[in-house]
């Protein structure tokens, strides 16, 4: 078991960057931490790092999102390819702009209320039980309606996305390799998402429908050449 502790962070500090500062002084100022692919299981107390803005923890063994409530200046959080099953303990990250959670065990997009600055959510390729699909908590979708601009939900066995219509400021939707089938549903969605200028639906059954691409482009004045299928 590998814990991400202050001691571990201190051991990885480049001494040339510290100048004459103590470890504590340096940790208080640090803005970026990269502990990707380090077999980390647990995030320990890093609350000294109050100015942390970017945290890379992808390709580890983390199962729970813990001990990040101190990171109120965090803008980018990379947690893809871990073993996280629940989107929890993120609501204190009020400045978070980009959240990467692809390749985990998450079944429901939830618990993001209050993240009013979140612009990008990447939650592709969840490792779900056979036959299950990624679901969306309506409260979370509503809370992201004004902020979210980019959403990646690829490869999650999703067969309908009409509920995403509340994301009125969405500009990019990546939903590759899902089970979307109905052109009409997508037409209704595009009526609502007037700011959407890029959409990728490659690998969905709907792509086999005759003239479906033409129908959707006609429905959306903003898509045009940025519609991939």
From TrEMBL:
Q: Per the record's keyword annotation, is Repeat included, yes or no?
A: yes
Task: Cite the InterPro entries for this sequence.
Answer: Leu-rich_rpt, Leu-rich_rpt_4, LRR_dom_sf, SDS22/Internalin_LRR
**Per its UniProt record, what CDD domains does this chain match?**
PPP1R42 (cd21340)
Question: Looking at the record's lineage, which domain of life comes first?
Answer: Eukaryota
Keywords from the named record:
Leucine-rich repeat, Repeat
Q: Does the keyword Secreted apply?
A: no
Which is an annotated Pfam family here?
LRR_4
Query: Per its UniProt record, what PANTHER family does this chain match?
Result: LEUCINE-RICH REPEAT AND IQ DOMAIN-CONTAINING PROTEIN 1-RELATED, LEUCINE-RICH REPEAT-CONTAINING PROTEIN 9
What name does the UniProt record give this protein?
Protein phosphatase 1 regulatory subunit 42
Q: Which gene encodes it?
A: PPP1R42
């Amino acid at each position: 078991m590998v814990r991400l502790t202050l001691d571990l962070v201190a051991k990885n500090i480049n001494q040339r960057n510290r100048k004459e500062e103590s470890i504590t002084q340096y940790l208080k100022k640090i803005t970026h931490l990269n502990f990707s692919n380090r077999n980390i299981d647990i995030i320990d107390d890093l609350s000294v790092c109050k100015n942390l803005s970017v945290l890379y923890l992808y390709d580890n063994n983390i199962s729970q999102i813990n001990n990040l409530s101190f990171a109120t200046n965090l803008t980018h959080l990379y947690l893809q390819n871990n073993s996280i099953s629940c989107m929890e303990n993120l609501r204190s990250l009020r400045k978070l702009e980009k959240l990467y959670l692809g390749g985990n065990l998450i079944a429901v997009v939830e618990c993001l209320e209050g993240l009013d600055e979140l612009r990008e959510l990447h939650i592709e390729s969840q490792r779900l039980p056979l036959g299950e699909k990624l679901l969306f908590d309506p409260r979370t979708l509503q809370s992201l309606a004004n902020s979210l601009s980019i959403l990646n939900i690829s490869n999650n066995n999703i067969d309908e996305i009409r509920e995403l219509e509340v994301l009125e400021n969405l500009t990019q939707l990546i939903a590759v390799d899902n089970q979307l089938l109905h052109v009409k549903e997508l037409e209704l969605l595009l009526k609502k998402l007037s700011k959407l200028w890029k959409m990728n639906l490659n690998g969905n059954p709907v792509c086999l429908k005759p003239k479906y691409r033409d129908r959707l482009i006609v429905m959306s004045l903003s898509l045009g050449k940025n519609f991939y299928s």
